Amino acid sequence: MRRTTHMDRTIFRVHLLSTLDEIKIRDHLKYEDVSLVIEPVFESDKSLNGADEIMRLVVLTEDNVRNRRFTVDEAVDLLCWRLPLVPLWIDVSLVEVVRNEGVFKLACSLRLRKPTELLHTETGHAPFRADFQ
């Protein structure tokens, strides 16, 4: 799979939507609207640089993300605050489908990296990976 060499809001959004579509097709889901729950994942065995610490202490604080549902555009804006750096990896999983809305969790690394260092390139939509239930 080819490595991501450029990242902007448009590419990040397309990659997120591709991952959501992958889950929708795989799990035969029916919904029209999407909301996202963001769950920062602190990796205790990894060191954080300055941008990573800002991500942890300012951007993805409990006050900013706990008990909150984001639209796709809100999530993109939040996670792309330090372009071209974005979270190293983001695991996407279905939380529930309620009425006509698919609710998904974005479990994301607090470590921000440049496009060429992102994980899950094999998916074709790095840094996203569809989690299996």
Tell me which oligomeric state these chains represent.
single chain
Global morphology: globular
**Gap between N and C termini, in Å?**
24 Å
Which strands sit side by side, in order, in the main sheet? 1-4-3-6
Query: How many helices does DSSP assign?
Result: 4
Question: What's the quick description here?
Answer:
With 133 residues, this protein is an alpha/beta fold. It has helices at 9-26, 50-59, 62-65, 72-79; strands spanning 33-41, 86-87, 90-98, 101-109, 112-113, 128-130. A four-stranded mixed beta sheet has the order 1-4-3-6, covered by helices on one side. A two-stranded antiparallel sheet has the order 2-5.
Structural summary, described in words:
This protein is of the alpha/beta class. The strands form two sheets. A four-stranded mixed β-sheet has the order 1-4-3-6, with helices on one face. Strands 2-5 form a two-stranded antiparallel sheet. The chain is built from four helices and six strands. The model has no long low-confidence stretch (mean pLDDT 95). Helix 1 packs across helix 4 (72-79). The longest helix has 18 residues, at 9-26.
Describe the protein's topology.
Elements: H1 9-26, E1 33-41, H2 50-59, H3 62-65, H4 72-79, E2 86-87, E3 90-98, E4 101-109, E5 112-113, E6 128-130
Parallel strand pairs: 1-4, 3-6
Antiparallel strand pairs: 2-5, 3-4
Helix pairs in contact: 1-4
